[in-house]
Amino acid sequence: MIDREWKPNVTVAAVIERDGRFLLVEEHTPDGLRFNQPAGHLERGESLSDAVAREALEETAHRFVPECLVGVYQWTRPQGDITYLRFAYGGRLEGEEAGRRLDDGIVRAVWMTVDEVRATAGRHRSPLILQCIEDWLAGQRHPLSLVRHY
């Protein structure tokens, strides 16, 4: 029998690199303080690229312009209760809104080297954080036209 009520959680994430450092957020979670990319859920009526720009601004106060799709990732939490379908975008920053209040639960935005990201893997919200960065470093870039919004 097919479970017609089950649906994955569609999320977006921004992979942002500047001068060899990646922009992450430290946030409160049910499991304590964790690191994540600027990321969040797709909202009703929103395109994926609009969602990732919004989430980056809300969580880091930086204006993010998506330029490519890094990858699409499916991950089910070890508890087996939630499956995430993540669309990770790479792009550039177009300024910061100094003094902007960050989303509830976000402690800070932080720039980390890839070695720092790897060293903190035990404090990542999911294994997707490091995987997205590794894919970015491997040169994985797909055109935005791969995802169509109607």
From TrEMBL:
Domain Nudix hydrolase intervals: 5-134
Pfam families associated with the record: NUDIX
GO molecular function: nucleoside diphosphate phosphatase activity; ribonucleoside triphosphate phosphatase activity; thiamine diphosphate phosphatase activity
UniProt xrefs under InterPro entries: NUDIX_hydrolase-like_dom_sf, NUDIX_hydrolase_dom, NudJ
EC number: 3.6.1.-
Cofactor annotation: Mg(2+)
SUPFAM superfamilies hit by this protein: Nudix (SSF55811)
Uppermost EC category: hydrolase
Keywords attached to this entry: Hydrolase, Magnesium
Similarity annotation: Belongs to the Nudix hydrolase family. NudJ subfamily.
SUBUNIT field: Monomer.
PANTHER family recorded: ADP-RIBOSE PYROPHOSPHATASE, DIHYDRONEOPTERIN TRIPHOSPHATE DIPHOSPHATASE
Protein name as catalogued: Phosphatase NudJ
